Amino acid sequence: MGFDDNLSIKLHQNDNVAIAFKEIAKGEITQRIKANIRIPQGHKIALKKIKKGEKIIKYDQTIGLAGEDILSGDHVHTENTQFLFSKHNYEFSTSVKIPNFAPVKLRPSFNGYKRQNGQVGTRNYIGILTSVNCSATAAKNISNFYDEKKLRKYPNVDGVVSFTHGTGCGMPSSGEGFEALQRVLLGYIQHPNLAGVLLIGLGCEANQIKFLLDAYNLNLNPLFQAMTIQDQGGLRQTIDRGIEIIEEMLPKINRIQRSPQSIEHISLALQCGGSDAWSGITANPALGYSADLLIRNGGTVVLAETPEIYGAEHLLTRRAVSESVGKKLLERISWWQDYVRRNKGSLNNNPTPGNKEGGLTTILEKSLGAAAKGGTTPLIDVLLYAERIREKGFLFMDSPGYDPTSVTGQIASGCNIVSFTTGRGSAFGSKPSPAIKISTNTEIYNHMIEDMDINAGKIISDNSSIEEVGNEIFDLIIKVASGEQSKSEKQGLGDLEFVPWQIGATM
User: Fold this and answer.
1) What percent helix, strand, coil does the chain show, rounded to 5?
2) pLDDT cut 90: percent of the chain above it
3) Residue 259: left if φ>0, alpha if ψ -120 to 50, beta else—which one?
4) Average pLDDT, stretch 195-200?
5) Where exactly are the structural domains of the chain?
6) 285 touches 372 (CB < 8 A)
7) So what's the architecture of 113-259 in CATH?
8) What angle do CA 101, 105, 106 make, to 5 degrees?
9) pLDDT tens across 209-224, in order?
10) Strands, E, within 233-388: which ranges?
11) Global confidence as pTM
12) What is the reported pLDDT for 350?
C-alpha cells in the first residue's frame, strides 16, 4: 500500500499525533505510519510510541498523558488518554503584537441604528425583561400578542421579544449570583439592539426592580418602562397594561432609521458549540482572522467560556497588555477550579459526548482549538460575567461553556452581533444580537445548510486559505450588522436562548 499524506494532517512538527482527514482503515499508511486499527475521521493516530505517562502533543501543546503504552499507528482516544491539570510557568505580555490599525478614513462602515447615548445597534427590537421567574408568563403573553401580522405596519421594528429566566428570588440579595443577574438585566436594558424596554416584576421578589433602578441611576422614560404584577392588580391587568405600553413605543421606534456608521461600533461575541477536531483547524482560526480584521478597523471582540480555554490560558496571558490583566484571567481560572471542586465536578467534563465522537479527547485539546477564535491581537481586559465593555479591542469575559448562558453574558456586556462555530451542528440563535454560524467541515455545512451561514470546512475540502474564509466571515459580519438576516434569524431562533448564569445556592 502506498504512502498517502492526504489521509491525515500533522499540525506541528513537534506533534506525536496526526488528525485523520477521513476514516483510515486498518493497515493503511499515513505520515509513513501503518494504522494498527481503524481511525475514525477527525480522530488522532499516534505517530510514534508514546509510553504510559508521557505527554500527548497536538498543536505543539500537551493535550493529555498516555494512560497506557500507545504504539505507533494506534488510535489515540478517551480510553487511553489521561486528563492532565493545566500547569504552566505563566508568562505575561511576552507575545503582545500591536495591531496595524487601519486609518479611520479607510475603515468600512455598516448601516446601523444610532442611539441617543452614542451607541449603535445592529437590530431594532423591543425587549420585555423580567426581574423574576414569577413574571415570565406576563412577559411571554405580551410578546406573543405581537405576531408577524401585527408588526407588519412597523417595518423598522425587528420584533417584540420577551427575555424570561428561572431565577430572581429564592436567592441572596447580595453576592455573586445576585450581582451577575443584575449585570445581565442592566446590560440588556442598555443594549443598543433594544430600542425599547419594558421591565416586569412580581413585586415581592429578592431582585427588586427599585433596587436595580436606584443602584444604576436608571430613569424611566417613554422607551423604558417598568411595572409589577402586584401593583397592577394581577396577571391579566399586567398583560393589558404591557400591551398598552408596547403600543405607545412601536410608532416611536419605527421612526428610527438605519444610517452609515463606523465599524468601530461593532462588538462581536466569539462563541463555539458542538465542536469537533476541525474546529481548531478551520473555523476557529478563520474566525480569529476576522476578529483581527475587526479590531484593526476599530471594533471589539469578546471571547468567553472559561472552562473551554482551560489549558490554553497560558497563550492568552502572553498576549495580555499588562501583568495585571493576565493575572485577572488566572484569577478566573482559580475561581473555576474551586467552583468545580465545590460542586464535585471536573473541568474535564467538557468535551461532551458529541465533541468526543468528533475527535476531541480532553478539555485541553478542545481549549487549544477554541482559543484560536481570539485571533492574535493583545488581550486588553478580562471581564466578569455580563460586565460592561469599557475598551475597544480583544477582551475575555468569564462565563460557563454552556452556550446560551455564555452568549447571554456576552450580549449583556454589549456585543451587538454573535459569531458561532460548530462542527457537530447547531441550531442556535441569540436575540437581540444576530448570530452567524460557521461550520468547521463541509459535511455538516451541506447536511445542515439551512442553519449554516459559512462553510469553513472548505479550508480542508477545497484548499481555501484561512485568510480567504476569514475575509468571508468579516464581510458577512458587516452585511448582517447592516440588516441582512442570518440563517438563525430566518428560522426565528433566539427567543429561548436568554439564560442568565445562576451562581450559588437556590434557597
Assistant:
1) 35, 20, 45
2) 91
3) beta
4) 98
5) 5-82, 113-259, 266-465
6) yes
7) 3-Layer(aba) Sandwich (3.40)
8) 60
9) 999 999 999 999 999 9
10) 259-262, 267-272, 300-303, 379-383
11) 0.96
12) 62
Q: What order of strands is seen across the sheet that includes strand 55-58?
A: 55-58, 61-66, 81-82
* Domain 5-82: CATH class, spelled out: mainly beta
Report the DSSP beta bridge partners of residue 29.
Answer: 34
Q: Which three cell numbers stand for residue 363?
A: 478539555
- How many angstroms separate the CA atoms of 303 and 280, rounded? 15
Name the residue among 188, 191, 190 with its Cα closest to residue 163.
188
Residue 464 exposure: Cα atoms within 13 Å on the Cβ side: 23
The confidence score (pLDDT) of residue 505 equals 82
In this prediction, residue 60 carries a pLDDT of 94
Residue 2: the pLDDT is 40
Q: Which residues on neighbouring strands pair with residue 272, listed in sequence order?
A: 421
Closest CA to 335 of 501, 192, 219: 501
What is the residue whose three cell numbers read 452585511?
A: 479
DSSP 178: H
User: Which three cell numbers mark 135?
Assistant: 413574571
- For residue 227, list its beta bridge partners: 200
Please say if the pLDDT value at position 448 is more than 60.
Answer: yes
pLDDT at 389 over 90: yes
- Grid cell listed for 378: 493583545
Residue pair 203/229 in contact (Cβ under 8 Å)? The answer is: yes
Query: How far apart are the C-alpha atoms of 42 and 22, rounded to whole Å?
Result: 7
Cα torsion 107, 110, 111, 114: sign: negative
Grid coordinates 427575555 are at which residue?
Answer: 163
The size of the chain, in residues, is 507
